[in-house]
Amino acid sequence: MSVVVFTLMSNIVIGLPMAVIPIFVHSRLGFSTILAGFAVSLQYLATFAVRSWTGRMVDRTGAKQSVLAGLVATVLSGVLTTISGLVQHIPWLSLATLLGSRLLLGLAESLISIGVMVWNIERAGPARTAQVISWNGICSYGGIALGAPLGAVMALLPGLMGGVTTLGMVSVLVGLVGLGLCRGFPPVVRVAEPAPPIPFARVLLRVLPYGTVLALGSLGFGAISSCLALYYTAHNWNGAAAALSIFGASFVAVRLVFSREINRRGGSAVALVSLTVETMGLGALWLAPTSFLAGLATGLTGAGLSLVFPALGVDAVARVGPENRGAALGAFAVFFDVALGLSGPLLGLVIQSVGYDPLFGVCAVLCAIGVAMLIVLRWRLPSRRPPG
Question: How many domains does the chain have?
Fold first, then answer.
């Protein structure tokens, strides 16, 4: 917990503007829904772009240095977000500055998440890989659950203290506190591995089967993070930030209660159940007639998504040696980044073409395809458990 707190702090910063940015870009700055979705997804595209470099950096220089660099990027992202709010009377400049902050936040997320996971695997041992990934995810979505409603409230403050200006200043403060804490932690003394690292492209190929399933399952979260606020607005509903909190709360609860099932039953078995539940949640969100039922369906989606990453991640990381652990986590996370990076603009295109109604139905169908693919994988590839 002493190390994974940095993931919590990072994702509080990520969650702060999540329900604010789409409306800010579309309603305040006057840009299209596609661009509003892209402004959210750009963070994930940036994370995807640096996964290879991040994984190798962790393996080469150590996890603590990666986390420190990520916290510096968090501070710089907050500075640009603050500037974006101050110049919103110049829409193109405000948007450009905001996009720059999203790029830096994507870099920060990659550095911190991979760094924290490898750091804690080194502290707790490879046998705890599933628990390490699970706790990292709890802090990821728990941070979003804390940050999203807080950001929505701060955005309503009057004058310069409202909008994205305050969100940026709070982000700077959180990043600086994280830097102060992280500098005091001793790094883990690393043991030299006898085998040389393998090329990242080969690592990526080894985790490809499970990564593809992860990408299909992650599109639901991409839709919720980038389009849920607009979906609620289109239906004249209130409570988008509350629905995001329900998503995060159900996500955390399932990981707390069921994460040990990954070691007991195998990663692919747990992932299969989780993806099925997520498919049901997305279908229910598509058909929900009221904001209350939509919020419950969002929570069911979060419960299903909760164990998908750690369950599939255990099988993926087991395909490479310990000298490639950072690269494997980075390569596996690439598929999550691709799903989230493409979800914003693609789903924005769906909205412009056929409206908001079928949005989450499309995501449910894609998640169901992931279920079918995982059933095939369970026949062809054995599920792996962490060593130890």
Answer: 1
